[in-house]
Each structure stands twice: as structure tokens, then as C-alpha cells.
Design a protein that fits this description.
3 helices; mainly alpha
Length: 71
């Protein structure tokens, strides 16, 4: 996530019509996977940077989010 910028996140939320959603709106795991996939597809990776796969990054981020926000 070190290459993810706030601009990437805002752009992904906007692409999925979530940017202006109310703060109490919940999205499911499939929607979150789509947003995270968009975020990781739009990052700019420096030429000398070794990047793991986008799919693995999405899985790790989703797992982290679910653990942080799990009741």
C-alpha cells in the first residue's frame, strides 16, 4: 500500500460511484474487491520497484480491512 495515493483512492471511489455516498453506507465484499482492484490497477510503479501481483495485494488489503473492522 506504500504506492497507493489518496488521489488513487478518490479516483477509484468516484469510478464506482462511492465518492459522494453517505458515511453510513455499507458495501459488501464483492464491491470492496472491485474498488481495491481499481486502486491497485491505477497505481504507478517505479521502474526499479518489485511489485507483487495486484490480486495478492487486493487479497491482503481486504483481509486487513475485514480484520480491522470486524465486530
Amino acid at each position: 500500500m506504500d504506492l497507493v495515493t489518496l488521489t488513487n483512492v478518490v479516483s477509484a471511489l468516484d469510478q464506482h460511484d462511492l465518492k459522494n455516498a453517505s458515511n453510513d453506507m455499507l458495501i459488501g465484499v464483492p464491491e470492496m474487491v472491485k474498488v481495491l482492484t481499481t486502486i491497485y490497477e491505477n497505481i504507478e510503479v517505479p521502474a526499479d520497484y518489485t511489485m507483487i501481483s495486484n490480486e495478492f495485494s487486493v487479497d491482503l488489503t481486504l483481509n486487513w480491512l475485514l480484520n480491522v473492522y470486524d465486530r
